[in-house]
Specification:
Cytochrome p450; 13 strands; 6-stranded mixed β-sheet; 3-stranded antiparallel β-sheet; endoplasmic reticulum; oxidoreductase activity, acting on paired donors, with incorporation or reduction of molecular oxygen; binds protoporphyrin IX containing FE; oxidoreductase; about 10% strand
Amino acid sequence: MITEAFILLAIIYVALMLFFNKVHRKVISKGPPLICGYIPFVGIAVEYGMDPRAKIAQLSKKYGDIFTIYVMGQFITVVTNPVDVAKIYSSPKTFNFFEVGIEFGNRAFTLPRMDDQTNNTLIHDIHHGLQSQELPVLTERANTFIQRDFKNFRSKDWKKVNLVEWVGDIISSVTLRAVYGENCNFKEMAKTFFPFDDKFAIIASNIPFAVKKKTGLFDIRDSFATNFVPRPEDDACLFLHKRYDAFKGIKDLSSIQLGNAMSIIGWAALTNTITTTVWTIYHLLKQPQSVRDEVLDEIRDVLGERSDGGALEIPYEQLSNLKKVDAIVSESLRLHFGVLSSRMCMKKHNFESSSGRSYELPARGLMLLASSHHDPHFFKDPETFIWDRFLHMPSSVIAKNGKSIPLSSVYLPFGGGANLCPGRFFAKNEIKIMVCLLLTSFDMKVETEEEPETDKMKWTLQVGPFKEGNIEIRYKNKE
Ligand code: HEM
């Protein structure tokens, strides 16, 4: 009986492998080298999922700048050369972000497709709001809320806090109130955000809906989304109101789908800002006192001293003059940003790579644009945090083909091209305000001795979060 069952399983396995290989051969013919592993459907998901960045680096060494991996039933073409990445970013019609958004929106948030016109208008409004029109107001609000929160932290005696939780609380409550309005339900939003963010990669993955439902993943997601079902507060960002009306207009959209559609912005606003702030503060506190003093001097030169009441004036226009603070945030983003963004190849396309080879890319093929942030060719001593690296970086660098390319083609923590993160200025402003207030308010020390480890499994499209989630610090009011 056991032998028969074994033979049957072996036959099924061989049949699956034959089918699998047939599918692969179709893709292989003129396409980039294909790495598919030996397990049907799963492909190389296990080794890739353990440490995506290391796996990509290893495959790139073996197969060159462009290759295709097979992961959980999906072919993903990985592009590692920044010259090719820049070419892809600059052709948004052929290599589309919107279509990836729809795919992820459907997988992670079970959202229906919108017509292109409405969607383009919404994306345009988000970009306009976050990058120009609403940016000074958002920054000013974040400043007010952080300064208010800081009053509660004052302590004459040394006090210990978990940096990850502390920053998570501050950034979530400040960002949510700035974006969704001062009276939004930010406490509940924040409470449900963390479990959702923790599971985001798996919720957005290609595993079947039924499995996500059965294992409670969608419940975690919907707990976060429920907070976003009511109409945004009057003082929420303008683009949120437009987004709400557009989704409300979709026939048969359930209220939880509406909540999910609105919660995407909240998730995007928090996920990377929190981790980047933690890394920035951690690295800053690990610098020698002389470096911290140099940064503090810059803050005092640009912003002046605190008033008698303890407030620090941080005018919006002065934030761009904090070059040293900016350099520290930029270096944290370089070191800890994961893989990079994705695009969808919209039609069958012959891609002429910078190495002179031509590859046929299939229609609706997913592309992953890998980061060069750890490539020693572009960033000397790439695994080391060098606090003033970005004060000395030239505006252009020499690519591997000997041609000069802008630094912005190899340093891409906010993505690139038409869909470059619209929240980047706000995020940086918020982090800089935090740094200025911390350095001018407190004496601080990192207590945790070991270097915190990045949770490599989550290190794909995000700034790497921490594995253990605990960095203990000590602080007290500055003398
Ligand atoms: C350090 C913090 C942040 C990082 C590292 C980051 C990174 C990114 C990246 C890599 C993308 C994809 C871009 C591409 O593929 O070309 C993106 C998109 C986006 N981000 Fe951010 N982001 C941050 C903060 C924020 C904040 C604070 C907000 C909102 C307040 C925000 C809102 C968005 C939105 C709405 C998109 C989609 C843009 C579109 O549809 O065109 N992000 N972000």
